[in-house]
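Long-time lurker. I teach an intro course on protein structure, and each term I like to show students one example going from raw sequence to a predicted 3D structure in token notation. This year I'd like something fresh instead of my usual example. Would anyone be willing to generate the tokens for the chain below so I can use it in lecture? Attribution to the forum is fine with me.
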Amino acid sequence: MTFQPTGPTKGPAVTTDVTNGSYRFTSENGPVAGSHEVQFLLDVPKAPAFAPLPKTTDKVPQLIVRSLAPTNNPSPTIQVEVPSTGTLQLDLVVPNSKP
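-- Reply from a regular --
Happy to contribute to a lecture. Here you go:
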């Protein structure tokens, strides 16, 4: 997921992975205090551009391509306010991205 500063908030966009429902930033690599649009980048399976593998190799991991905005299902976003003091924990809910 990516935190992109919005409005008067100035600073770099920051990105991290969500693993087992959790994400982590530190004060050094996390978002600056202020308003942000949080974009959730979804892992979308995509068919490889080559012929399918024979069934004898069915234990080969599936190819996953990270897609910023699948053509028929844009990445969901939410608006958040990152506090300047207090806890740095934000519990975020990924919005339903289906139409």
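Some talking points for your students: Strands lie at 2-5, 14-15, 34-39, 42-45, 64-67, 77-82. The CA atoms of residues 58 and 71 lie 29 Å apart.
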